[in-house]
Amino acid sequence: MKKFDLCVIGGGPSGYAAVMRAMDFGKTVALIERGRIGGAGIWNGALSSKTLWELSVNYTISQTQGLGYRVYDSELIFSEVLSQMNQAVHEKYTQLKTQLDYFQRKGLIEFFNGHGKLKTENEIEVMFKDGHSELIWADNTVLAIGSRPRYVPNIEIDEKIILSSDGISSINKFPESIVILGAGVIGSEFATIFSNFGKTKVYIIDKQDKILPFEDRDLADIVASNLQKNGVTIHHGANLERMEIVDGRVEYEISIDGRKEIYNVEKALVSVGRVPNIENLGLEDIGVKINDRGYCIDDDTQTCIENIYAVGDFTADIALVNVGELEGRYAVERIFGSPKKKINYDNISTIMFLNPAIAGVGYNETKCRQMKMPYKVATMHFKYVNRAIAMRKTEGLFKILVTDDDEMKVLGMRACGKHASSTIESIALLIDKGLSIHELAELIHPHPSITEGIQECARMLCGKSIIKPEIFNMDLKCYRVSAEGRMSPITNYENK
Length: 496
Hints:
The protein contains 12 helices and 24 strands.
């Protein structure tokens, strides 16, 4: 029986990160992956969909009018768009495989392209596609088993007409129409992509009164407004009564305020979350505890079994590539070393690829109100940021939240608009170090830059902004919210 210091089940972002962190400790690793290295991080997930988003944004730029230039003729070829996406995925896969092959040649990693199942706390059975199996031994195991799209009862997902996010890339042309069930991040991103290309009539079924249910309304409303300007129909407050394939197309029925409506479209995308891949892993046999939703019950990545850890989409924490990588690396550090600090899930940077993009770190107002946490907040519209004016891209805003005290420690930020993802690093650092907004107010930013808007938010909170919220109070806001949710404008600044 082959023996290893570590076995990692799952070769997606969290599993791959765990393997590479183990290389830093000089350990021997068995990596078991039944599919392709990279997981949803590159295949049918983050990289593929974001490549499509980037291409769709580039296309909208080529169609822009009213800025002193005009494109009179262009051709959009879906097969070539998909080719670009596939090239991007292949480039990243090649990087991951090249690195894996290097450590295999050194004898530190052995890759098993099969399904891993726990037999005991140390023994793992690898079952291969040709039917044979092999038993290996590992001193420690990291479960990075990943997830798959959640299915909805009574909806037949055939990945041809009714699709999940895993099957959306299998289509070979722009559909003339598509309905998207689910108005969360994935559903809204695909609505953005299809509407940007302008070849598909898009419908979204949103059971709530706003899309992006976990995001603040002002940000969600900007995205919803832009989707609607792009021709997207959003069924707010809709209950799906049925969705079925009729004569090779999708017929769906919704009810809104007691009335029923029936629509017929070419394709459907079901985007209602994901579920962990827990089947046939031997979890119950050896006593790994999971909750009723299929997520591992862990303590700082460690399961109830001392030498077995859970990371990535198998945990009930935030299901993001960067979080999965962080957990994978952290678990290995716990096994073979001593992490300098515990994972802080309150300081996770995110980006939603919408129109416009939304980036965030730390708390938003929705979270603070749920926690009944008093806070101060400053909001500045992009139209007052010189760089945005120069780019002729003035739709968007910055929003910074701080504690409601003299110190004003940073709680979080949201950026919505052009270059949003490039603006949150300084705020993430302030949150990580527990620093005050005063630090940011005095930092000299390059001019003209988008990040000057962040500085003006900080200055507003400190009572010394150049652009005054009292004058432009429709676009610049500065107020406090009590623990009970009562809002009051900040007019007499405490810190001048």
